[in-house]
Every structure is written in structure tokens, then in C-alpha cells.
Amino acid sequence: EIVLTQSPGTLSLSPGERATLSCRASQTISSSNLAWYQQKPGQAPRLLIYGASSRATGIPDRFSGSGYGTDFTLTISRLEPEDFAVYYCQQHGSSPLTFGPGTKVHIK
Amino acid sequence: QVRLQESGPGLVEPSETLSLTCTVSGYSISSGYYWAWIRQPPGMGLEWIGSLYHSGITNYNPSPMSRVTLSVDTSKNRFSLQLTSVTAADTAVYYCARIGDSGPFDYWGQGILVTVSS
């Protein structure tokens, strides 16, 4: 099983600041098999990034993904009030499909 | 627009079977794609339960999923989850989702909270 570790666990930032979230895999993942999701309280997760760096439909360009191998990054260039949420990475190249534990981005 | 909607009982007694259905609208399941169940215990992270194709091909998470059965009813455009011998540890929000072209979960239902309690 591929274990995903996310850091930091919590990120305290102000609107307008840049957020950098990390996802590390226990073994190499093809970049095409790494996704990022955003989840707000009481809502289902929403797909943000697939293939490590491709934005899903309707996702603003302030969200970007990068990385390869075992280290991946989600960057939010300038935080908007609606971006404060929990972010999960997920790998879908190897069964069982696994998620990271999440990074909570909250308002400082 | 693809929409998914979970339905089923919100309360299940310990040792009983949890049964949920996901009804899909805006897309015919028999046209393709894999469909999945994911759960999230209160205040915790996401766990993939399993996936299935319209032909009945399934793929399960081995832990804890020897108790899981997934099935599909293409005539009603829905798929189902059965989880036997439930315990309090199975209390969670259960989501159904579609696995998109490139592999991630691209459409999600709103989720249904299932509590295991007597």
C-alpha cells in the first residue's frame, strides 16, 4: 500500500498570502496518478488537480500542482476567503487507492 | 451534468448490514467509467472502500473490506454498497463518486452519514 504523508498538518495564513502544501509518497508514483482535492465543512471533496499539475474544470488558476516521484506540491498563489479548507492528496495508480491525511488551511 | 445521490438508512445496529445506494443522473452507468465508494469517519480523513464497473468488475480495498460487496443495477442507473457485521468503527459519512478518465474521483455525491449504534 502506498502511504501518503501531508505537511504541514495545519497552515495558518491570511487572505492574499501564498500557501504551499506538501504530499510525500512512501514509494514512487507516476505523476499522472496524483490528485488534489479541497473539502469544506459539510461538503464532499472537490477535485482540484489531477495528473499532479492539471487543473480540473472550473478551478481557478491560482491553484497549481507540481512534483514527481515521491514529492508533490499544491500551491495556492494568493489565498481567497473561500480557499480556507482542508486539502487532500490522493494516488490512484496502485490499489488500494489511498489519500493523505489532509492539510487544513485556516485563517490567521 | 453528472449527479450522484446516496441513499439508505442513517442508523444501523452493530453486527447488522449497512446497505447504501448511489443513484446517478446525467450519465448512463452502462456507458462506461468506474464508480466508487469512499468513506470519512467524523473528523477524520478519506478512505477508499472499493470501485466497480458497469460490467460488474470490482476492486476492493483489502482493509477492512472483506465485509464489502459492491453491485450495479444498470436498469436503474445506480450502484450499491453492502457492508456486513458493522461496528461503531464503521460510523462515517459515505460518499459515492465517479472515477474520471485520468483516474481521480471527478464527481461526488453529497455524502450520507451512517451511524452504527444500538
Give your account of this protein's structure.
The complex is a heterodimer of chains A (108) and B (118). Chain A is an all-beta fold and 108 residues long. Chain A is 0% helix and 55% strand. In chain A, the strands form 2 sheets. In chain A, strands 2, 4, 5, 6, 8, 9 and 10 form a 7-stranded mixed sheet that branches. In chain A, strands 1-3-7 form a 3-stranded antiparallel sheet, with no helix packed on it. Helices cover 0% and strands 52% of the residues of chain B. Chain B has strands spanning 3-7, 11-12, 18-25, 34-40, 47-53, 58-60, 68-73, 78-83, 92-99, 105-108, 112-116. The model of chain B has no long low-confidence stretch (mean pLDDT 95). In chain B, strands 2, 4, 5, 6, 9, 10 and 11 form a 7-stranded mixed sheet that branches. A 4-stranded antiparallel sheet of chain B has the order 1-3-8-7, with no helix packed on it. The interface between A and B is medium-sized, with 25 and 22 residues.
